Recover the amino acids of this structure.
């Protein structure tokens, strides 16, 4: 079966510290991968998406970056966190390579608090 | 630019009341539409989706949504809500050439027992 794992579940980091959130997918090959952020009181915002290894597209310019070192691994990073980076980060995947409008499958999310 | 709007940010209902959550989208071309739900402490889950065909879509837990192309709308409905429907509901859209979901701002539903 297809599953998605995202960790850590919660994270408290000081301003200026680095960030690394990891997401892995099982049970499918060459998935499309996504990072979303849900800020308090706001909707979901697409941050990055990837259609293949090493292929990253950014939707919103900011101090975050994403990488896809392996087919089913998607990492969200920052060199120096800002207070405004606090929020709920969600990884999601779409099975397979050719998009057919199939629904996304979301991970359980990471609640990041930057202090 | 593609966008999805949910005009109700907070909705409070009593049990057995009827529910309708509005969703309007702005997309060129053919669009795929989704409703996701996030129960307290849980991850996002798909409620229902529309790709083509019958514009009235039935989802899980008694939810349904109607695609009205002329109004660019995909409103979510349930005839009789339960306390367990308390959650945040997100409308989302993507064009069928890809699956770059654009989400609405979400509607937080609270059902009073």
């Amino acid at each position: 079966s297809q599953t998605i794992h995202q960790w850590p579940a919660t994270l408290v980091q000081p301003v200026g510290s680095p960030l690394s959130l990891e997401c892995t997918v099982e049970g499918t090959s060459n998935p499309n991968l996504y990072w979303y952020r849900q800020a308090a009181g706001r909707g979901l915002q697409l941050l990055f998406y990837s259609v293949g290894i090493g292929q990253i597209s950014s939707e919103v310019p900011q101090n975050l970056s994403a990488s896809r070192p392996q087919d089913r691994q998607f990492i969200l990073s920052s060199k120096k966190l800002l207070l405004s980076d606090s929020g709920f980060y969600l990884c999601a995947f779409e099975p397979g390579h050719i998009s057919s409008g199939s629904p996304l499958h979301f991970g359980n999310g990471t609640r990041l608090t930057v202090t | 630019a593609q966008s999805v709007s949910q005009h109700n940010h907070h909705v409070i209902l009593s049990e057995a009341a009827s529910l309708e959550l509005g969703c309007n989208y702005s997309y060129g071309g053919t669009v795929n539409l989704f409703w996701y739900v996030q129960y307290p402490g849980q991850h996002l889950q798909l409620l229902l989706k529309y790709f083509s065909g019958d514009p009235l879509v039935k989802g899980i837990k008694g939810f349904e949504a109607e695609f009205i192309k002329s109004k660019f709308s995909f409103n979510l409905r349930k005839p009789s809500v339960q306390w367990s429907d308390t959650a945040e509901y997100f409308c989302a859209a993507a064009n069928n050439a890809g699956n770059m979901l654009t989400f609405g701002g979400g509607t937080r539903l609270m059902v009073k027992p």
User: Anything to note?
Assistant: Chain A is about 0% helix and 55% strand. The two ends of chain A are 38 Å apart (CA to CA). The interface with chain B takes residues 32, 34, 36, 42-46, 49, 90, 92, 94, 99-104, 106-109 of chain A (CB under 8 Å). The first strand of chain A starts at residue 3 and ends at 7.
